[in-house]
Amino acid sequence: MNHSFDTNKQPRVVITGGGTISALGNNWQQVSHFLQAKQNAICVMDSWHVYPQMHTRLAAPINDFTVPPHYKAKQKRSMGRVAQMAVVATEQALTQAGLLEAPILQNGKTGVAYGSAMGSSNAALEFFSMLENQSMDRLNSTTYLRMMSHSAAINISVYFGTQGRMYTTNSACTAGSQAIGYAYEAIRNGQQDIMITGGAEELCPTHAAVFDTIFAASTDNDNPLSTPRPFDQKRDGLVLGEGACTLILESLEHAKARGATVLAEVIGYATNTDGNHVVRPSQPTIAKVMRECLLDAAINASDVGYVSAHATATEHGDIIETLATHEIFGDDIAISSLKSYTGHTLGACGSFEAWASIMMMNEGWFAPTLNLENIDSRCANLDYIQDDCREIDAPIIMSNNFAFGGVNTSLLFRRMQP
Fold it and tell me: Which of 199, 232, 331, 368 has the lowest CB atom count within 10 Å?
């Protein structure tokens, strides 16, 4: 393959820490238990019955999340739920990376790249009450800080004292994966030594309503564990979830110098836009983003052993994604969708799916797509992982995400040799 630059002259970028708050659990032991048990976190949201015009009643909430007691009231004032989850996940990731008390967090050499689709809904209600009732009684000095779409990113920066670069990605379903990509580029280009990156989203019925109004949300309310059904001919739409996942990226040289344990190497990233339709994905540009990611990593499609699919269980999305994937990889690529376990966590999905796929890669197995009983004949002929977890020795994996507006991302990760 011919490339216009010499990748050997650029810093290699590695992942040295990961932390998550998810409906499957808050650490890899808990999350892998659900994946190996082939059990999802979907349930009926009784609190949504107050919205009779909304057809879906399904989601994957996190019912047991609490902010640790060492967080002071002053520190929490600017944090809504989405920021709280993001900061706690970041604390976990920094702890695993051995950087929680490191001076480098505050000396300008550490940046933040973090995404979410929205801020906290409760804060938005405080503002909208002013418009509806012509009263500012519910507003306070932190309302906007909790409501703004980059609330998670700035609260991470303030809580841990970072003074480096800041990238706030608010591109819905690609917010987390774009954040990882921009963090990777910042380190590879020598602009930062460390990047805190990932995505977060809190569950809100308005998110479900967005998809409900375009008939893209699952309405199989009597069978919550049987939905969503990515790639399946009987799928009836997506299910919303929530959570946060943070990764710590740094240059390999910096990680080695401090004796850090490396989870994986980030070797490729690409992003583009369809420029075609607001909600209908496009096969040519989705295929192109995967191709450009391979080019960025200077590898061939045959080097990739597994693809973590975006696969939301919507008809057009599933079909187009599989056709594009087949265009790049052919029949033999192993593929599955983690949204069948967590639902669609919007801004968090890109980072959570990347993290979980990396952890599976390191252990040599991959989870199947749940509820995939009969593959839609309109989907491409791929090696869909069904029924059981599968042992696969895949030293390189790809993680893909695609968002409203035709925003596409592709990431490549390589397992580090002992």
Answer: 331
| 381-411 pLDDT tens trace | 999 999 999 999 999 999 999 999 999 999 9
Q: Please, what's the largest Cα pairwise distance for the chain?
A: 63
Helix (H, G, I), strand (E, B) or coil at 151: helix
6 pLDDT band (50/70/90 cuts)?
Answer: very low
Mean pLDDT, the chain, rounded, equals: 95
CA 81, CA 139: separation in Å to the nearest integer? 17
Active-site residues, by number, are 173, 310, 344
CA separation for the pair 353, 182 (Å, rounded) = 17
Burial of 100 (0-12, 13-18, 19+ CB in 10 A): middle
Strand pairing report for 383-384 and 334-336: parallel
pLDDT computed for residue 125 by the predictor: 87
Q: Is 387 left (phi over 0), alpha (psi -120 to 50) or beta?
A: left
pLDDT in tens, 281-340: 999 999 999 999 999 999 999 999 999 999 999 999 999 999 999 999 999 999 999 999
With CA atoms as reference, report the closest residue to 285 among 240, 244, 327, 230: 327
Which residues does residue 76 pair with via DSSP β-bridges, in sequence order? none
Q: How far apart are CA 33 and CA 26, in angstroms?
A: 12
